[in-house]
Every structure is written in C-alpha cells, then in structure tokens.
Amino acid sequence: MSTILVVLEVRDGSVRPVSHEVLGAARALADESGASVIALATETCAADAAHLGAAGADRVLVGAAERHSPDGAAATVARVAKENGASCVLLAATARGRDQQGRIAALLDTGFASDCVAIDAKGPVFTRPVFAGKALIKVQIHAGVAVASLRANHFAPAGRTAEAVIESCSSESGKSEVVEISAKSAGRPDVAEAARVISGGRGLGGPENWHLLEKVADAVPGMALGASRAVVDAGWRPHGEQVGQTGKTVSPELYFAVGISGAIQHLAGMSSSKVIVAINRDKEAPIFQHATYGVVGDALEILPALADELQKLGLQ
Ligand SMILES: Cc1cc2nc3c(=O)[nH]c(=O)nc-3n(C[C@H](O)[C@H](O)[C@H](O)COP(=O)(O)OP(=O)(O)OC[C@H]3O[C@@H](n4cnc5c(N)ncnc54)[C@H](O)[C@@H]3O)c2cc1C
After folding, report:
1. What pLDDT digit, counting tens, does each position of 54-94 carry?
2. Which superfamily does CATH assign the domain made up of 196-313 to?
3. Separation of 181 CA from ligand 1 center, angstroms?
C-alpha cells in the first residue's frame, strides 16, 4: 500500500492547527487511492491520537529532536519517506514549510509544488496561484515522490472518528538549530492561519490608532491583525503582520481591509479571502472592486462603532 506522508509543524510542543488541514487533504487523497496516511513530527511534541486520527492520520511518528533543525528535519522526512515508500509528501505552506519543501524535494531527487490551494487526486495534480494571484497553474510531478506545500484555510481536517497509532522515531541532527522564536503578536493568532483577519493601512494615520483595530479584533474570536506594507515600512507594525506579495498570504473566512487602497501587491496576499469588507474614505479606492461589502467613510469613526456593535453580540 502506498503512503502519503504529512510533515507536522510543531510550535511550543504542540502540533499547529494548519497541520490538521494538511492531514485532511492527505486523507482525501489516500481515500481516493487506497493509501495510508503517516504523520511525522520531526521534533518531540504532544501527539493526541484521537485528534490527529480525526484529522486524517493513520499513524503518527514522533521524532526525538528537542529543537527544529531545518536541515536535520528535512533529512528525517526524506528518510521516513523512503522507508515507507511514500508517493507524496505534504506540508503546510508556512514560513517553515516553504523552507522545508525544497530541501526535502532535493533529498528525494524530485520536484515540488508550492503554496497549493487544491489537489486533484488523479495524478495528483496540484493547483497553485501565480503572478500575484492573477492566474492559477496546475502542476504534476513526474519524478516519483510528489512534494507539495498547502496554503492555510483551503483544506479542512477530515473530521472522522478514528484514533491514530502513535510511535516514536529517531531524528537526524542537522548543522543548524532554531534556538528561539520571538512572536510579537501578543497572543493573537498568526495572520497567515487565522480564519478572521483585520488589516490596517496608511489610512489609519499612525500607530497610535491601532488600538481601534485591536478593539475590533478583541470582540471577534480568533481574529488576527494584519497590515499593509506601507504601514510595515513606516515601522508602525511588525513585518510578521504584513499581508501581500512580499508578506504573508492569507485566505480567511473574513478579511477587513481598513484604510488600505488595494494595491495589486496587497491583493496578491488576500484576494482569495471568502468575504472581504473594505473601509475607506475614498469611494474610488481600488479595494472596493474586490470587496464583498464596502463602507465609505473615516475609519477612525467607523472602527469604534464597529467594535461597540461586535461587543454587544458577545462573540468572545
Ligand atoms: C515589489 C513590491 C512588493 C510589495 N509588496 C507589498 C505587500 O506585500 N503588501 C502590501 O500591502 N503592499 C505591498 N507593496 C506596496 C503596495 O504597492 C502599496 O504601496 C501598499 O499596499 C499601500 O499601502 P496602503 O494601502 O496602506 O497605503 P495607501 O496606498 O497610501 O492607501 C491608504 C488608503 O487609506 C485611505 N484612507 C486615508 N485616510 C483614511 C481614513 N481616515 N479612513 C479610511 N480610509 C482612509 C485612502 O483613501 C487610501 O485608499 C509592494 C510594492 C512593491 C513595489
């Protein structure tokens, strides 16, 4: 039986939610082809058999590394893929996943498809956006093992009733190790993975007005903060919050673009959001051409009213 190998991403000892989405994609592929799904954490972590089984894993291999090593983890993945005759290696298109995919493909002497938003099991054929989201291309890898990273919020955990078998495995050591990750988002979800995002642009006038966005985000469960590049370049917000061509790609259920003009480079990072709400005082702003709902007005007046209404709903 062939195997689909999913590389789990571990942060602070736990498997990140985006990896459950990748497991769901792997399960759908496996169900079409009769393959099994092996999930591999190259670092030690708390692996929940019911949770990972429900997401789609048949077996979970938990490595022995105490810290993430980019080259060590890739070597572990390549070895486990070979040992188990994997036909496909899937990982999340996060910063770490993007770093890993090329290393893994090189070690397996194959190609990779990056940042995929759909998979057709026949092939498999991977669909990925190109040209800043203006076109989609379909990619098939003919070199044996197919390596692909999957964009967050495009696939769902399988949602089945099953327990995965948890096993331990060895991990290759690498030449470099990540010794610290300093998140600056003060406990909010990562903008690339959140199901709801509120982003601010230059129209907010300055960093002193960001509390208005934060108040809205505080009223909605799991809402992350994002920013345009203009704001990041001005030093108002950290680069980790930047959405767009040279920032993060997001595909949330709900995306607020506040005081953001809608430049093509910003759209490249958020145009696949399911519902886009634009707040801008210029009714000709390009963002309105892409918005599901548009509010023409001063963000500094609209945001407090929006936060008040959301708080009344008691969503948190
Ligand atoms: C190679 C390259 C890569 C890039 N990568 C990115 C990227 O990853 N992400 C990104 O975002 N940009 C990126 N850019 C920059 C991009 O071209 C734009 O310059 C940037 O997105 C503009 O940011 P903004 O919309 O916040 O600012 P502006 O374009 O200045 O727009 C501000 C908007 O706020 C509105 N406004 C003003 N005051 C108010 C108010 N009180 N209430 C409501 N609305 C108000 C204005 O009407 C205007 O529409 C890139 C550019 C290049 C060349």
Report:
1. 999 999 999 999 999 999 999 999 999 999 999 999 999 99
2. TPP-binding domain (3.40.50.1220)
3. 28
